[in-house]
Amino acid sequence: MSIPLLDLKAQYRDLKTELDGAIEEVMSSAGFIGGPHVRELESEIAEYCGTRHAVACGNGTDALFLILAAMGIGKGAEVITTPFTFIATAEAIAHVGATPVFVDVEPDTYNLDVSQIEAAVTERTRAIMPVHIFGQCADMDPIREIARRHDLRVIEDACQAIGATYRGARAGSLGDVAAFSFFPSKNLGCAGDGGILTTDDEELAQACRKLANHGTTVKYYHDTIGVNSRLDALQAAILRVKLPHLDRWNAERRAAAARYDELLADSGLTLTATREYGESVVHLYIVRHPERDRLMEALRDAGIGTAAYYPVPLHRQEAFAHLGSGAGALPVAESVAEQTFALPGFPGITDAQQAEVVRVLREALG
Fold first, then answer.
1. pTM of the prediction?
2. What's domain 246-365's architecture?
3. What span, in angstroms and rounded, lies between the C-alpha atoms of 363 and 71?
4. CA–CA gap between residue 89 and residue 14 (Å, rounded)
5. What was the pLDDT predicted at 117?
6. Percent of the chain with pLDDT over 90
7. Cα–Cα distance for residue pair 137/88, rounded to 1 Å
8. Which of 97, 155, 199, 344 makes an SS bond possible with 74, Cβ 3.0 to 4.6 Å?
């Protein structure tokens, strides 16, 4: 039985009529940059997340960059973040000239270990950037309290967590500002690259919007140096078709995760913990085992999709070697990076498919 890690083809088949209609509408209008679909998507995402503003942009990495640049965080500044995530988080910090300061993670959720954050604060720290890894919110109350005590900004990297909740509030509304990605594999994905940022801060929203549009609010008049980071109308139209289905898809992901938790209990795999303070959207169903590579090979041999997340923590990447973090600096992140991998858990996965994944894993585990 062939089982993909993510089945985007099935998602397209389910929404083909609506998606094709939305694409045809944009093509017929020839309005490819900006326009009503982008404005409406911004309004809909802001309402969905519970914020006053949303600013669409080219991708999730740009969203993080625009936020940092608009806040004036640059050379000489430090931003505390996690080493166990995709490089875009720290890449955005580096692109504005600031320094990422990595803090170790929890061994069971893989989110920032909040008990270690305050010790990393220095006179150069300007912000804390938690990542809601794999679709579960970081523990935001203590993060916000540390930020309040030290007059720091809180930037949510919510790129994997659209729809996730923390104490009843949605990701995107938990810090000063948040970044989301619409990369195709995300819970809400477009047909290419796309991103958005959400905030209640009108001044920050307008600054980000200006920076994303070549530093201008009036065409051909530029009072700052910006970049070109705009969400295409085609992508906005596609996302608007998909957004009403997001909560159902997230619920299906949670149901699949619950089935795996039951089927893999006492299997020898370490399962991801779910905190009671909120609801995860299970962007990826992650398990852990010392013999990860052997288990992944068994899955692939059986035609089952899998991938390692993340095999090299950011502080050990060559790109950040100049920061001087040697082996053992962040032991939890280093340990889990050698052991974590994803199982298929996409919306619509069947009981039979999950049973086959578990059968292959249990057979490989002995």
1. 0.97
2. Alpha-Beta Complex (3.90)
3. 52
4. 33
5. 98
6. 98
7. 18
8. 97
d(CA 136, CA 253): 12
pLDDT tens figures, 177-187 = 999 999 999 99
Four-residue CA torsion sign, 32, 239, 237, 18: positive
Determine how many CB atoms are found less than 10 A away from the CB of residue 276: 6
Q: Which two tokens stand for residue 327?
A: 């082996």
- Of the candidates 101, 94, 102, 103, the one whose C-alpha atom is nearest the C-alpha of residue 74 is 94
Q: C-alpha distances in angstroms, 319 versus 91, 118, 308, 328?
A: 9, 25, 20, 18
Boundaries of every domain in the chain: 8-244, 246-365
Nearest-CA neighbor of 235 among 57, 14, 52, 47?
A: 57
**Residue 363, Cβ neighbours under 10 Å: how many?**
10
Amino acid letter at 105? V
Residue 344 near residue 287 (C-beta atoms within 8 A): no
Q: Is the pLDDT of residue 325 over 90?
A: no
> What topology does CATH give the domain 8-244?
Aspartate Aminotransferase; domain 2 (3.40.640)
211 neighbors 227 (Cβ within 8 angstroms): yes
Average model confidence (pLDDT) for the chain? 97
DSSP assignment, residue 321?
G
Distance between CA atoms of residues 92 and 157, nearest Å: 11
H-helix or E-strand spanning residue 57: strand 53-57
8-244 shares its CATH topology with 246-365: no
Residue 180 near residue 198, CB atoms below 8 Å:
yes
Gyration radius of the chain over CA positions: 20
